[in-house]
Amino acid sequence: MPAEEGPGETRPASPDEVRRAAELREIIARHDHLYHVRDAPEVTDAVYDRLFAELLSLEAAHPGLADPDSPTQRVGGAPAEGFAEVVHEVPMLSLANAFEESGVADFDRRVRERLGLAEGEEVEYAAETKLDGVALSLRYEHGRLAVAATRGDGARGEDVTANVRTVRSIPLRLAGDGFPERLEVRGEVYLPLDRFERLNEEQRMRGEREFVNPRNAAAGGLRQLDPRATRSRRLMFFCHGAGRADGIPSAATHRGLLRRLDEWGLRVSPDVRVVRGVAGCVAYYREIEARRERLGYQIDGVVYKVNRLEDQHRLGSVARAPRWALAHKFPAEEAVTRLLDIDVQVGRTGSLTPVARLSPVFVGGVTVTNATLHNQDEVARKDVRVGDRVVVRRAGDVIPQVLRAVDPESRAPGAPRFEMPAECPVCGAPAVRAEGQSATRCTAGLRCPAQRKEAIRHFASRRAMDIEGLGEKLVDQLVETGLVGTVADLYRLEDRREQIAALERMGELSTKNLLAGVKKSRGLPLPRFLYALGIPDVGEATAGALARHFGKLFRVREADEAALAEVRDVGPVVAAHVVAFFEANRGAVDDLMVEAGPAPVPVERPDGGGEAAEPLPLAGEVVVLTGALAAMTRDDARERLEALGAKVQGSVSKRTTLVVCGENPGSKRDRAEALGVRTLDEAGLLELLEGG
Ligand code: IVH
Fold first, then answer.
1. Residues 6+ apart with CB under 8 A from 103
2. Residue 604's pLDDT is what?
3. Is 131 a pocket residue for ligand 1 (Cβ < 6 Å)?
């Protein structure tokens, strides 16, 4: 008879319970691996949570079952006083860099020479992404994670084992068999971009300092004295090599070595590829560069490694870098330069935007001289002042931004803060900032030449009226010479051929093209026309909703705020903008109607009146698109979904009915899953669009 349990006393686990605990650990470790390493979960969070809870309660009831490698131990132990030192058995080297193709060619030539290859014989390289994270060494002993250490100075680093145990893409035990008794794995700890953004949002909400970049946030996360703080940062890991490769059975190549590591449950980048010669390396570089923005984590280049391990061994190392590897870096996305001045530009809806004038600086592959500072609050938050040295960022095609001052403490005392002017810098009308809004606006409306130019540019833009031949500089000239005052004037330019042809950089042919472009834009569908008007806050989706709801332009114009607010997605702010716009621009819109009125559209009238059509097949669906699609752009997908009656929105909410996930969908998919919203992959989307 087992003794009765009293408080604080525990009964030893029965053989069944011992077996169940071991089984649960194995099952949970497998699901951890599928979720965090393979990105291919097999069970729902609820199922996982149930298994986890069962194991937790077993372990709580029977302290004898304790196991430091149990998945329940990933929660992080007690805070440490500091980090112990770890001496790296094999030094952690760095990489030689190249920024140009010529550097890659030089590297390849040196490799071929040293290996004594014949003319024309190509080297095989393993090409990988170069993660912009924090280097980490993991020592497994008999398949168990024994020590995790930072790179430090390359010879000795810090023992961060307790923290690393909370990183779920790092196995506490290796899977399968055949691993050497001692295995040192090397890789990179990083913070995915969506987590980085969320982390900074939390920092902002708490009124704490934001992290400068994901690498700093990851490094800080790894060096938390309290492992629970590391855990909450939810770091990830990719491995890219081993400290000792020679002990690994049957791996003759770097690629083979990574495959072994993958089999043992470690996370290897899916973008490793074996390429040949300089041409293969450069093609890989270009491919990754093109996909860089969609990876979901930061990389700062690619790495080429001589694939055959024996060749690596023969090549050896020089100083602090191996001769068999090269980092081919992308142009830096951040650079430091001097802030020369802050100008204020006037946008389409009259918003005043502070623009930084910079001492020219090469960043993100181009020379940048201007960068946006968004609005008054942004300048205040960043507290950058004329004369400061500032960090400028230009990533991909995103417009350059000023991030922060490098050393605000060292600026001259009394350097003035930026103040938004009280008048529009273009027309001199009062500029006001409405309560609760971030934008300061010029109050002159289309009387302001700057707004007029922007309104015309927007009207002519590709997604609006798509008037070919009407470029930015031409709009400036047309407005400045008085040839065009309102968009309707564009349609009366026929009679002004000579004056147009006489403008700078214009001639007979470009005049003819312009007039043809204008003519072609007559009679476009109502949604395009409404969007082209440039009503504040009325984007394409809202324009489409208004067009479908009211059917005719005059009905939209006559609608009061209450009628407008009946349109799905139109709230009081947008309704007020629409009413105010038509009030202020009645004459101009009438005029435009006569010259270039829109074509009538079939409408879905909710009251069943008017030109009621069949309800569209996707009416009522609220769709969010995320990740990259292969067969079409997201804009195309949106157009096609909207044409079938769906609403397409930017973020997932309780009203979302469907989330389409392309490649690397990111946090929107997580959110959809959390809310139980249906998701579709690209194939499913195509089926849907084709009426499936
Ligand atoms: S191999 C001996 N592969 O870049 C070769 N390193 O700038 C050592 N890194 O310290 C590294 N991605 O922390 C290698 N695919 C990759 C990498 C990578 C990022 C880091 C690594 C290294 C640093 C050198």
1. 97, 326, 328
2. 45
3. yes
Whether 346 and 490 share a structural domain:
no
pLDDT band, residue 38 (cuts 50/70/90): confident
Q: Which of 473, 498, 520 is the last residue of a domain?
A: 520
Nearest residue (CA) to ligand 1, atom 3: 240
If asked whether residues 336 and 189 sit together in one domain, one would say no
Same domain, 163 and 236: yes
With respect to residue 219, please indicate whether it lies within any of the assigned structural domains.
yes
Which one has a higher pLDDT value, 370 or 597?
370
Ligand 1: nearest atom to the Cα of 130: 12
Has 130 been annotated as catalytic? yes
Residue whose Cα lies nearest atom 15 of ligand 1: it is 130
* Same domain membership, residue 376 and residue 228: no
Cβ–Cβ < 8 Å for 163, 234: no
Predicted pLDDT at 1: 41
Q: Which of 88, 99, 130, 236 to mutate to test the pocket of ligand 1 (most atoms within 8 A of CB)?
A: 130
Residue nearest ligand 1's atom 16 by CA? 130
In a domain, 500, yes or no: yes
The string of pLDDT tens digits covering residues 125-141 is 999 999 999 999 999 99
Using the 8-state DSSP alphabet, how is residue 417 labeled? P
- The verdict on the CB of residue 126 being under 6 Å from ligand 1 is no
> Is the Cβ atom of 273 under 6 angstroms away from ligand 1?
no
- Tell me the torsion sign for CA atoms 188, 194, 200, 205: negative
Q: Please, which residues have CB within 8 angstroms of residue 551's CB and are 6 or more apart in sequence?
A: 526, 600, 601, 603, 605, 610, 611
Quick one: 467 and 420 in the same domain?
Answer: no
Q: Count of domains in the chain?
A: 6
| 240 CB near ligand 1 (under 6 Å) | yes
336 vs 595: which has the higher pLDDT: 336
Domain membership of residue 487 as a residue range: 445-520
Whole-angstrom distance, CA of residue 452 vs CA of residue 483? 12
Q: Which alpha helices (H) appear in 148-250, and where do they start and end?
A: 161-164, 193-205, 214-222, 227-233
Contact 132 CB / ligand 1 (< 6 Å): no
For a pocket test of ligand 1, which of 138, 240, 328 has the largest count of ligand atoms closer than 8 A to its C-beta?
A: 240
What average pLDDT score do residues 593-615 get?
54
Answer yes or no: is pLDDT of 81 > 80: no
CA–CA gap between residue 472 and residue 453 (Å, rounded): 9
Q: How far is ligand 1, taken at its centre, from the CA of residue 324, in Å?
A: 12
Q: Are residues 651 and 577 in the same domain?
A: no
Report the CATH number at residue 673.
3.40.50.10190
Residues 6+ apart with CB under 8 A from 364: 331, 332, 333, 393, 394, 395, 396, 400
Return the sign of the alpha-carbon dihedral for residues 498, 499, 500, 505. positive
Which of 184, 257, 303 is the pocket-test mutation for ligand 1 (most atoms within 8 Å of CB)? 303
* Ligand 1 centre distance from Cα of residue 238 (Å): 11
481: CATH: 1.10.150.20
Q: How far does the centroid of ligand 1 lie from the alpha carbon of residue 277, in Å?
A: 20
Q: Is the CB of 93 under 6 A from ligand 1?
A: yes
The neighbouring-strand residues paired with 156 are: 87
Residues 314 and 189 grouped into a single domain: yes
* 378 closest CA partner among 334, 342, 423: 342
* pLDDT category of residue 181 using cuts at 50, 70 and 90: confident
Q: Tell me, what CATH number does 58's domain have?
A: 1.10.287.610
pLDDT band (50, 70, 90) for residue 603: very low
Residue 552, pLDDT > 90, answer: no
576 assigned to some structural domain: yes
pLDDT tens-place string over residues 554-600: 889 999 999 998 898 788 889 999 998 898 888 888 888 877 777 65
- Structural domain includes residue 504: yes
Q: pLDDT tens digits for 82-112?
A: 788 999 988 898 899 998 999 999 999 999 9
